[in-house]
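Record type: monomer structure entry
Structure origin: computed from sequence
Chain ID: A
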Amino acid sequence: MRIIAGCARGRRLKTRKGLETRPTADRIKEALFNILASRVADCSFLDVFAGSGGIGIEALSRGARSCVFVEKSSLCAKIIKENLLLSGLADRADVLVMDAEVALIHLDKKAAGFNLIFFDPPYFSHELGLALQKAAPLLLPGGLIVVEHHSRDYSWFNADRWLKLREKTYGNTSLSFIVPVVFTADECLPKEEGG
């Protein structure tokens, strides 16, 4: 796994071996950040179910002001911290070693706010739907939530709560770009750069 662009471009990151984590493939990561484009610079980023931290670290490399990583595995959290040091981005990051729901409640109590929130849980996770509910109050006006999920799994999506702005599918993996339905109708996603 490597950092694709930005100040830490080309740095190789550590990943946990085995089936517990599923790092986002480089082509999907590149497509994600092409879609997010100018939203990333100077944003406050939240990486939930962070695994080895590849998405949040990519955001920091591309100019995100800060990133909070949420990961319940202490071993994965250790790898995230090592990757932050390897990439020279640790000063703009915080790692919360806790369950997603607990971490999101904790952040809400601290009145934290984020422009971009990324979810990459294990495929077919039963935690995702509830975690999304807990994340909604953390999203700043004009912000965006991105969910990486199996392309056949929409059990987490509730049309009464979420408005889907866009979706891209790559094999078994889909990226869904959503906002709470309470957001105003003029919230829109910029076109992907380069077409």
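Annotation 1: The beta strands are 44-48, 66-70, 93-96, 114-119, 139-150, 162-170, 173-180.
Annotation 2: The two ends are 26 Å apart (CA to CA).
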